[in-house]
Amino acid sequence: MAVALSALVEEADRYLNAARIQDYCPNGLQVEGRPQVQRIVSGVTASQALLDAAAEVEADVVLVHHGYFWKSEDPCVVGMKRRRLKTLLVHDMSLLAYHLPLDVHAEVGNNVQLARQLDLIVEGPLEPENPRNVALVGSLAEPMAARDFARRVQNVLLREPLLIEGDTPIQRVAWCTGGAQGYIDQAIAAGVDLYLTGEASEQTFHSARENGVSFIAAGHHATERYGVQALGDYLARRFALEHLFIDCPNPI
To answer: Does Oxidoreductase count among this protein's keywords (predicted)?
Structure first.
């Protein structure tokens, strides 16, 4: 069964309420392909490897979290950007990308989906008054040692995390997928035992260590694999389409 590309995009935009969030890139349809859709390939980033894999399975739409046309990006279509766009255009594939709207969504969002993977109980946003703060705060059902929780993260994400171990067992947790190490100070102010994100900066170590809080950097890519899969599954169910998630491993 096929569906019009316009209907698919309209539903994704509506479901994620994409227009309400001011972002660093355009959300929604970034590159237009064939007008009818039967097969969606999803992935974290619209890299050349993902595009080649999508073309190999004859995808109609490539659905990603990290697309193109970032505010700080060179607009010239040369080099890597030219090769990527050429692949999409030659194979008549659409590129559908959602950044912050996918992070914050209450059902398929990256942070909610990661919580489900790690058995974290969601309480709500870390900063409820800030619409662009996508971090969440919650808890574990039972306290556990930081090293044991880090082992859980490794077993689920299949990637050894960076752990800075704090002074107390872990129960109250804040987290934000991707490159959100800058939220550690808000997490500390909220009284958490551990803050988890994808990446770390030099100053993250000092913030965690000097405040006695545990910190885990579990990988930008690794923590953001689940939202786009959930969105792809939702769209596939909604329109009776084929959906295939393709993971292109990234150690960062």
So the answer is: no
Considering the domain architecture, whether residues 11 and 116 belong to the same structural domain is answered as no
Cα-based distances in Å from 251 to 71, 106, 159, 220, 225? 25, 27, 8, 8, 13
| Six-digit token string for 190 | 């909220």
Structural domain range at position 213: 104-223
In the 3-class helix/strand/coil scheme, how is 222-236 assigned residue by residue? HHCCHHHHHHHHHHH
Does pTM surpass 0.90?
yes
Distance CA 117, CA 95 (A): 27
Residue list for the binding site for a divalent metal cation: 65-66, 103, 220, 224
In a domain, 252, yes or no: no
Q: Tens-of-pLDDT digits for all 252 residues of the chain? A: 899 999 999 999 999 999 998 899 999 999 999 999 999 999 999 999 999 999 999 999 999 999 999 998 999 999 999 999 999 999 999 999 999 999 999 999 999 999 999 999 999 999 887 766 789 999 999 999 999 999 999 999 999 999 999 999 999 999 999 999 999 999 999 999 999 999 999 999 999 999 999 999 999 999 999 999 999 999 999 999 999 999 999 999
Do 198 and 110 fall into the same domain?
Answer: yes
